[in-house]
Design brief:
253 residues; mainly beta; Porin; eleven-stranded mixed β-barrel; 11 strands; 11% helix; globular
């Protein structure tokens, strides 16, 4: 049972949750009308993204390695216009934690794209990352700055990408294991490439959803929500993807 709101926080939580659910419902109800707007220069597509991300410390191997970190995530991306499967991604990394809040990372990603028909290709990425995770009670905050070098088999140029993400989590007072979460991530290309990248703003991803911690220690978290992905500088037209995103996050530190 929920008691009297303190400082209006419970009322705020209810308002935020109601707004989130209303916006998500509106997107799906308006889907046929939205899809028609592609004829006006912005193509729309719908899909589902599934992600499992795990990270932990190397301390179990040796106490002297307690500041070294490992990272591995796997993703499956499904889009309607790609007849289901669109992309698969494997991304391992090794990192070093300066503090409990600040870490740096060096990683690799293999991406296979199959957008339907003959459009199949592999991509290899090398990436470097600065991660800052902190808390401004009761809000959790994360900043992730990632520099990426992209190699596509459809061309010979190296593409340089900058990704900047800001993420927040807001636990409910009536059940701190559950709450609201959201992020926004900007993508910029540093250069033109012979495989289609254009220098400048590349895309934006906005996510809003709910999270639930699956254990008392908070080592496993499930996020479910709506992702809006806007892609600019596409060779044919700008695109917007409306995605149901499901993330399983495992923190084994």
């Amino acid at each position: 049972m929920i008691g009297r709101p303190r400082n209006g926080r419970v009322v705020t939580e209810r308002s935020l949750l109601s707004t989130l659910l209303s916006l998500t419902l509106l997107v799906w109800v308006a889907r046929p009308g939205v899809a028609q707007s592609g004829s006006q220069g912005l193509e729309h597509d719908f899909g589902v993204w599934l992600t499992a991300l795990s990270q932990g410390s190397l301390a179990p191997l040796s106490p002297g390695l307690r500041n070294l970190r490992w990272w591995f995530d796997v993703q499956a991306r499904l889009l309607e216009d790609s007849d289901g499967y669109d992309q698969g991604l494997l991304r391992p990394a090794i990192g070093y934690a300066f503090t409990d809040e600040i870490s740096v990372w060096l990683g690799y990603a293999y991406v296979h794209t199959d957008a339907g028909g003959p459009a199949q290709f592999d991509e290899h990425r090398f990436w470097q990352q600065l991660l800052w995770s902190t808390k401004f009670e009761p809000v959790g905050f994360q900043s992730r700055t990632r520099l990426v070098q992209r190699f596509l088999e459809t061309g010979s140029d190296t593409g340089w990408w900058l990704r900047q993400l800001f993420k927040i989590t807001y636990p409910f007072t009536f059940g701190p294991r559950f709450g609201l979460t959201g992020f926004n991530e900007l993508f910029f290309n540093f250069n033109d490439t012979d495989w289609g990248a254009n220098a400048g703003f590349a895309q934006n991803r906005f996510f809003a959803g709910l999270f639930g911690r699956l254990d008392d220690r908070g080592r496993a978290t499930l996020e479910i929500g709506y992702l809006n992905q806007f892609l600019a500088n596409d060779p044919l037209s700008d695109r917007m993807h409306h995605i149901v995103m499901v993330n399983l996050l495992l923190n084994l530190n």
